[in-house]
Amino acid sequence: xxxxxxxxxxxxxxxxxxxxxxxxxxxxxxxxxxxxxxxxxxxxxxxxxxxxxxxxxxxxxxxxxxxxxxxxxxxxxxxxxxxxxxxxxxxxxxxxxxxxxxxxxxxxxxxxxxxxxxxxxxxxxxxxxxxxxxxxx
Amino acid sequence: xxxxxxxxxxxxxxxxxxxxxxxxxxxxxxxxxxxxxxxxxxxxxxxxxxxxxxxxxxxxxxxxxxxxxxxxxxxxxxxxxxxxxxxxxxxxxxxxxxxxxxxxxxxxxxxxxxxxxxxxxxxxxxxxxxxxxxxxxxxxxxxxxxxxxxxxxxxxxxxxxxxxxxxxxxxxxxxxxxxxxxxxxxxx
Lengths: 137, 188
Hints:
Chain A is α+β, with helices and mostly antiparallel strands. Chain A has helices spanning about 10-25, 50-75, 115-135; strands at about 30-40, 45, 80-85, 90-95, 100-110.
């Protein structure tokens, strides 16, 4: 879980995140917004959204992830894998990038099934892990 | 049994998480993430949502202790938690680049809690940075919140006795505020 340079300041990691997000939006038309963020709430890269919104979503997603982790820890059910927020006109899924202090948060409209959305989020997080891991190797 | 919700606010690295750990009778709930902002505070982790602890005082009053993240990018958590709180312990680390400016910023953000119950200021890390002295804090508080009684202490967030003194001072203020409000209601 240690990056030498913080992910949000590392141009290579930012480029990887943009690459993954581009592919992400290609395979899922119901995707409205997505962002990679550091565990402590800094935006690494985003698709859609303005700069202010991106920073705010990164902070909120970081807090949500930490609260999810805290609940899972308190209930002794292991680490929180993902979080889903279902609303009237869409939902947000966020998932940690495995082995890294990074999270992917994605907003889908209501047309998408949760299963499909979860599947593409998992794929994107996994792709990000592979890119960052290969860079480190 | 009365219940009080007390917030612990202040800049990153002021000792909010540590203060709640010092005071809490239960295992604290922490939401920490790896800190990638070493320029602001050179520590491994940082609170990104809240800290939570509990303490019982006077045999019957339960006090819920909530710590908020110090960074402004988490100010949505400030808004959420401020609504429930009746008092504030504002911790300012004396070794911050400009601790008086930090005091100003947090009083501006959380000053309304004085009307809800009370505020106490705890100056931490004065062992590593002896200045500014407490009178500078008191002077600034008088300037930005004139006519308000806001005690200022030096405190070590790791020291349960010192933090308890600050907390009891705040609770006394909260109860006095409630009593005055009750008297005014009865008189009206």
